[in-house]
């Protein structure tokens, strides 16, 4: 039973380590995603500014109606708001990453990395089987089950008769010379 409890503790420690690593990886890729989103939104604002200048020029020359100019202006303001959201998301993603990896530094840092688009070999059934084999939570559950079976076996054993035995060896006497003594005992206990 004690070895099962120790195995459960080891598996729980592995689970905790894997959870920390997973959370750090997720935070890392969230920073990359947020940086890509911010870059896209910056380009989007640039395009909207160009479209606004075009719409204004068309309106001033009488080629387009004022509504086209107002629509382009509204789209620019909307894309600027989305750009602000992207900046905030990047700031939050960076702070989250720093918390996950345990660093207390400025959130202004340069991160280098890429999204990996590799194809994994195997089938879904093989991946599920491998996951079940390698997940420490599942191994901890198996150890808990083993511990419970051991506890049940011990509990059942408490209702059965058992034999205790003992033996001893020593020297004793009232006077010198001491004499050798041997002791043997057997006890049958019936609960």
Helix-strand pattern, N to C? HHHHEE
Number of strands: 2
Count helical runs. 4
- Let me know the largest β-sheet: 2 strands, antiparallel
Strand order of the largest sheet: 1-2
Structural class: mainly alpha
Taken from the alpha-carbon principal axes, the silhouette is rod-shaped
**Mean pLDDT score, rounded?**
83
Helix content: 55-70%
**In angstroms, what is the radius of gyration?**
37 Å
State the distance separating the first and last CA atoms: 23 Å
Which percent band covers the strand fraction? 5-15%
Low-confidence stretches: none
Quickly describe the structure.
Helices cover 68% and strands 12% of the residues. The protein has four helices and two strands.
Could you describe the 3D structure shown?
The model has no long low-confidence stretch (mean pLDDT 83). The radius of gyration is 37 Å and the shape is rod-shaped. The chain is built from 4 helices and 2 strands; from the N terminus they run ααααββ. By secondary structure, it is mostly helical.
Write out key terms for the chains shown.
two-stranded antiparallel ribbon; 4 helices; 191 residues; 68% helix; mainly alpha
Architecture blueprint of SSEs:
Layout: H1 2-61, H2 66-101, H3 124-134, H4 136-157, E1 162-172, E2 179-189
Antiparallel strand pairs: 1-2
Helix pairs in contact: 1-2, 1-4
